[in-house]
C-alpha cells in the first residue's frame, strides 16, 4: 500500500538529524523502470519554497528518476542560498545514486526535491547530505512505509495508498496535517505507477485528479509555500492504459490520500464533508463550500456539537454565488434544519456526537455540485499552532 507497490520503484526513509526528535526525516523514492515520465502540481502561493522552484523546472524536462524529500525544515524564504542548497541536494543525490547503481546514470536535472517544516531557516546541509547517502544505501522494494514516515511533521500517522488497474498499479504517499487549503495544502505527495504513460498523459491525469481531491481539501484556509504533488511512471508493467483509465486510478489514489489528510488535521475532532448542490455552476458550488469550510463560527459550532445552521447560511450569504436567500435549504447529518432560508426540522434531532459530519447546502439555482472537505476548529488546533515551531 505504498509508493513501492508499483513495479520499478524503490524507496527509503532514514534519520539524518534534521528533526529535534531524532525521528526519520529524509526520504528517497527512485524509479528503476524503463520509463521515467513525470508530472507535477505545485502550490499557487506566490511565496514559493526553493525546492518548489527547483522541482517545477525539473518537471518541465519530463524526466525524473528520483525524488528526495526532507522533513524538519521547509527551506522556504531562504533566499539564493536556499536555492543553492536545493540544487546541491539534487546534485548529491544524483551523484550518490550513480556511484551505487551504475545503471542509473543521472544528473541533478532528473532529481526532484521536496522539503517540509519550519519556514525561514536554511537546512543543515552537513546533516542532510550524509542523510541522503544513507537513504541511497537503504533503498529497497519494501522501503515505501519508511519513506512515508520520514516526511511527517505534525502528522500523527503516515499516509499511503494503492489503486489498481488491469495489470498495472498506482501507489502513493503524502504528508499534511495543517496549513491545508487549496493549491494544495501544506502537503507533499509522491504518486507512482508502473503503467506506460508519457509526461503529457501523466499531467492530464494528475491535474484532473488534484482538481477534485487535494484542491478541495480546506482544513484551515491557510496555503503553504511548499505544496508539491508528483506523479512518476516506470512503465515496468508494459501496459499502457487509456487516458481515462489512468486518470480514474490516479483520482482514486488522490481521493484516499486527501481523506487521510483531513482525518489527521491538527486537533480535529470532526471530519466534515460540505456538499453543495443545485448550484448555477461548479465554481459557485466550490465557492460556497469553501466559504463555509473556512468560517470559524461554523467550525467552532461543530466542535461544540452545535448544528448552528444560521452560521452556515450567513457564510453562504457572503459569497458571489447565484442563489435566492429565501430558497436555500441546509441539512446537517441528514436533518433539514433549514428550508427556504428559515428554520425547519428541530435542530435537536441532529446527532453530532460522532466524528463524521455532512453538511448539505441546496442552493436551488442550477444543476451543478461540488464537495469540500474540512474539519472543526478545536482547542487542539490552537494549541498545536501556538506551540509548534520545529
Question: What would you say about this model in short?
Answer:
With 390 residues, the protein is α+β, with helices and mostly antiparallel strands. Helix 5 (199-211) crosses helix 6 (243-263).
Topology:
Layout: E1 9-14, E2 26-31, E3 37-42, H1 50-60, E4 66-70, H2 79-100, E5 111-115, H3 125-138, H4 144-150, E6 159-164, E7 169-175, E8 188-193, H5 199-211, E9 228-233, H6 243-263, E10 271-279, H7 282-293, H8 296-303, H9 309-316, E11 329-332, E12 335-339, E13 342-343, E14 356-362, E15 368-375, H10 379-387
Parallel strand pairs: 4-5, 8-9, 10-14
Antiparallel strand pairs: 1-2, 2-4, 3-9, 6-7, 7-8, 10-15, 11-12, 11-14, 12-13
Helix pairs in contact: 1-2, 2-3, 5-6
Can you give a write-up of this model?
This protein is α+β, with helices and mostly antiparallel strands and 390 residues long. The chain has helices at residues 50-60, 79-100, 125-138, 144-150, 199-211, 243-263, 282-293, 296-303, 309-316, 379-387, and strands at residues 9-14, 26-31, 37-42, 66-70, 111-115, 159-164, 169-175, 188-193, 228-233, 271-279, 329-332, 335-339, 342-343, 356-362, 368-375. The strands form three sheets. Strands 13-12-11-14-10-15 form a six-stranded mixed sheet. The protein has a five-stranded mixed sheet with strand order 3-9-8-7-6, with helices on both faces. A four-stranded mixed sheet has the order 1-2-4-5. A hairpin with a 2-residue loop joins strand 12 and strand 13. It is globular, with a radius of gyration of 22 Å.
Amino acid at each position: 500500500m505504498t509508493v513501492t507497490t508499483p513495479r520499478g520503484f524503490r524507496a527509503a526513509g532514514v534519520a539524518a538529524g534534521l528533526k529535534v526528535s531524532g525521528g526519520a526525516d529524509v526520504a528517497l523514492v527512485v524509479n528503476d523502470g524503463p520509463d521515467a515520465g513525470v508530472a507535477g502540481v505545485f502550490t499557487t502561493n506566490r511565496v514559493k519554497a526553493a525546492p518548489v522552484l527547483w522541482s517545477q523546472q525539473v518537471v518541465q524536462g519530463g524526466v525524473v528518476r528520483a525524488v528526495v524529500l526532507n522533513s524538519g525544515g521547509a527551506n522556504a524564504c531562504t533566499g539564493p542560498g536556499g536555492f543553492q542548497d536545493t540544487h546541491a541536494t539534487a546534485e548529491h543525490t544524483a551523484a550518490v545514486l550513480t556511484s551505487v547503481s551504475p545503471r542509473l546514470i543521472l544528473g541533478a536535472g532528473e532529481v526532484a526535491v521536496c522539503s517540509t517544516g519550519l519556514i525561514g531557516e536554511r537546512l543543515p546541509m552537513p546533516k542532510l547530505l550524509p542523510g541522503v547517502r544513507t537513504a541511497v544505501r537503504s533503498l529497497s522494494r519494501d522501503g515505501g512505509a519508511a519513506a512515508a514516515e520520514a516526511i511527517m511533521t505534525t502528522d500523527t500517522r503516515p499516509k499511503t495508498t494503492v489503486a489498481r488497474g488491469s495489470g498495472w498499479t498506482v501507489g502513493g504517499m503524502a504528508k499534511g496535517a495543517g496549513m491545508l487549503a487549496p493549491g494544495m495544502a501544506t502537503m507533499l505527495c509522491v504518486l507512482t505507477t508502473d503503467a506506460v504513460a508519457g509526461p503529457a498523459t501523466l499531467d492530464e491525469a494528475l491535474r484532473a485528479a488534484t482538481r477534485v481531491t487535494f484542491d478541495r481539501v480546506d482544513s484551515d484556509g491557510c496555503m503553504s509555500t511548499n505544496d508539491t504533488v508528483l506523479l512518476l511512471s516506470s512503465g515496468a508493467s508494459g501496459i499502457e492504459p487509456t487516458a481515462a483509465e489512468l486518470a480514474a486510478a490516479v483520482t482514486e489514489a488522490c481521493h484516499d490520500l486527501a481523506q487521510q489528510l483531513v482525518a489527521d488535521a491538527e486537533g480535529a475532532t470532526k471530519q466534515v464533508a460540505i456538499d453543495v448542490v443545485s448550484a448555477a455552476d461548479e465554481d459557485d458550488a466550490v465557492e460556497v463550500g469553501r466559504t463555509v469550510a473556512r468560517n470559524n463560527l461554523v467550525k467552532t459550532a461543530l466542535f461544540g456539537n452545535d448544528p448552528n445552521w444560521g452560521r452556515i447560511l450567513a457564510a453562504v450569504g457572503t459569497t458571489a454565488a447565484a442563489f435566492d436567500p429565501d430558497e436555500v435549504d441546509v441539512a446537517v447529518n441528514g436533518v433539514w434544519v433549514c428550508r427556504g432560508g428559515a428554520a425547519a426540522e428541530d435542530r435537536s434531532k441532529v446527532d453530532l456526537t460522532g466524528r463524521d459530519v455532512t453538511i448539505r447546502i441546496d442552493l436551488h439555482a442550477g444543476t451543478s455540485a461540488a464537495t469540500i472537505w474540512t474539519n472543526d476548529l478545536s482547542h487542539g488546533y490552537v494549541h498545536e499552532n501556538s506551540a509548534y515551531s520545529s
